[in-house]
Amino acid sequence: MINENTLIEDLVQDHPKLVGPLADYGLVCIRCGEPVWGTLKELAEDKGVKYLDEIIGEMNEIICK
Predict the structure, then answer these.
(1) Count of alpha carbons within 13 Å of 49, Cβ hemisphere only?
(2) Contacts of 19 (CB under 8 A, 6+ apart)
(3) 25 to 11, 37: CA distances (angstroms)
(4) Residue 1, in any domain of the structure
(5) What SS3 state is found at 21?
(6) Angle, CA 50 vertex, CA 44 and CA 55 arms, to 5°
(7) Does residue 15 surpass a pLDDT of 80?
């Protein structure tokens, strides 16, 4: 399960199909050309994303399909 403490590099490695949906939410990550390291929460805070819980819920739905 993905949570706010999931490392971006692990997320991209373990679930590459999430790169596109994350970018759609403004959470551009290393695979998209932006050198981002750290947790999903840190990336969201850096990008000013306020609804991280909803995004995490959707990402978990995607990987459970």
Answers:
(1) 21
(2) 12, 29, 31, 32
(3) 15, 17
(4) no
(5) helix
(6) 70
(7) yes
Q: How many domains does the chain have?
A: 1
Of the candidate ranges 2-6, 22-26, 36-40, the one whose mean pLDDT is the lowest: 36-40
pLDDT tens string 29-44:
655 555 567 899 998 9
User: Is residue 3 assigned to a domain?
Assistant: no
Q: Which two tokens stand for residue 37?
A: 């390291």
pTM higher than 0.70: yes
Both tokens assigned to 40: 């999903």
Beta-bridged to residue 39, according to DSSP, are: 7
**What is the extent of the structural domain holding 18?**
8-64
Q: How many residues does the chain have?
A: 65
DSSP state of 4: T
pLDDT digits (tens, 9 = 90+) for 46-59: 889 989 999 999 99
